[in-house]
Design brief:
With 358 residues, the chain is of the alpha/beta class. The chain has two domains: 3-63 and 173-357, QueA-like; 67-150, Thrombin, subunit H, CATH 2.40.10. Helix content is 20%, strand content 27%. It has helices spanning 147-150, 164-173, 196-204, 243-254, 264-276, 314-323, 330-343; strands spanning 27-32, 37-42, 55-59, 62-63, 67-72, 78-88, 91-97, 107-111, 117-127, 133-138, 182-184, 208-214, 237-241, 259-262, 284-288, 303-307, 354-357. Helix 6 crosses helix 7 (330-343). The longest helix is centred in the C-terminal third of the chain and has 14 residues, at 330-343. It is globular.
Length: 358
């Protein structure tokens, strides 16, 4: 299947650059997969589609302030550093811009949020085929402990912030209300719509709410650059599926309850574990590079809450696979739904509106 088959045109004004005042005031486009019927609702209406015995599964990974500003220790040239993967304390793979100025051996000085130089330095140790740099940090026992004072929330590149007050708002809003273990460099955005009150209402309907953890990497949101989907190599991400969540899922499946996955990252955890264990759901800690695209059968997930995704992204391909499990024409259904969302002026991408596939 060609990657270009997952292209669509989006008016720029429909890209959500700011969060709404209330998380659950976003809109919800409901797609009934069996007959293609659409409903236009508010996100706070989500509990209507859940029933006693169902399970709502969320990714509780916390976004770290992974974007840092720095300067070349010799020339003073400015760098932007995005932490990607921790090898060990103070040893990270990063995206460093502009990369051409960051040769092996280059030393950079980290700056705080006001642009002032700090005692923290980093040295470029090596590069990889993707153009990423491996940095060794010095002047701190653990760079993670410095991020509150030095790091910015790694918003998508189409969202630009210049003042500290707006950056502080993003620290709250580009984070789910249930975020727990730190490790993501991008938000599991489908979860941004939930409030504690809405989760309590869902629990009050006899629905179990439980969690998985998948630390979202930069590659989740990257477009597929190969001409065909099969030519794309998916990145690896760390995940954990705990025993308590497994028990809830097994009981729900045994009694006929449905599993509602919040976000494509949650789907990747559940379907990865099932694929690795002959269809069984078991407690598991590991990494996954699963790439879900049409045609694909789903062993665990029955319904999906998600946002509207970028063209040619692996997220759009996963949603297309879920729209018509085991078939290749889910893409047509999803793109026609996206066209309806554009006509109805839905807000797209990370801070945008949501979609429910039932």
């Amino acid at each position: 299947m060609l990657t270009s088959a997952f292209d669509y045109n989006l008016p720029p004004e429909l890209i959500a650059l700011e969060p709404l005042p209330r998380r659950d005031s976003s809109r919800l486009l409901v797609l009934h997969r069996q007959d293609g019927r659409l409903e236009h609702r508010q996100f706070r209406d989500l509990p209507v589609y859940l029933a006693p015995g169902d399970v709502l599964v969320l990714n509780d990974s916390r976004v770290i302030p992974a974007r840092l500003r720095a300067a070349n220790a010799k020339s003073g040239g400015r760098f932007e550093v995005l932490l990607l993967h921790e090898n060990q304390f103070n040893d990270w793979w990063v995206m460093l811009r502009p990369g051409k100025r960051a040769r092996i051996g280059t030393t950079i000085i980290l700056h705080d949020l006001r642009g002032t130089a700090t005692p923290v330095r980093a040295t470029v140790l090596e590069t990889n085929p993707e153009g990423h740099r491996r940095l060794r940090f010095e002047g701190t026992s653990n760079i993670l402990a410095e991020l509150a004072a030095m790091g910015e929330i790694p918003l998508p590149p189409y969202i630009v912030r210049s003042d500290l007050s707006r950056m502080e708002q993003d620290r709250q809003r580009y984070q789910t209300v249930y975020a727990n273990p730190a490790g993501s460099v991008a938000a599991p955005t489908a979860g941004l719509h939930f409030t504690e009150r809405l989760l309590d209402e869902i629990r009050g309907r006899g629905v179990r709410v439980c969690f998985v953890t998948l630390h979202v990497g930069l590659g989740t949101f990257a477009p597929v650059k190969s001409a065909t989907i099969a030519g794309h190599v998916m990145h690896q991400e760390s995940y954990e599926l705990g025993a308590e969540t497994v028990e809830v899922l097994l009981r729900a499946k045994a009694s006929g309850g449905r599993v509602f996955a919040v976000g494509t990252t949650t789907v990747r955890v559940l379907e990865s574990v099932a694929a690795q264990n002959q269809g069984r759901i078991v407690p598991c800690v590991g990494t996954t590079g699963i790439f879900i695209y049409p045609p694909c059968d789903f062993r665990v997930v029955d319904s999906l809450v998600t946002n509207f995704h970028l063209p040619r992204s692996t997220l759009l391909m996963l949603v297309s696979a879920f729209a018509r499990p085991g078939q290749t024409h889910g893409r047509d259904l999803v793109l026609s739904t996206y066209a309806a969302a554009i006509r109805e002026r839905y807000r797209f991408y990370s801070y945008g509106d949501a979609m429910l596939l039932v």
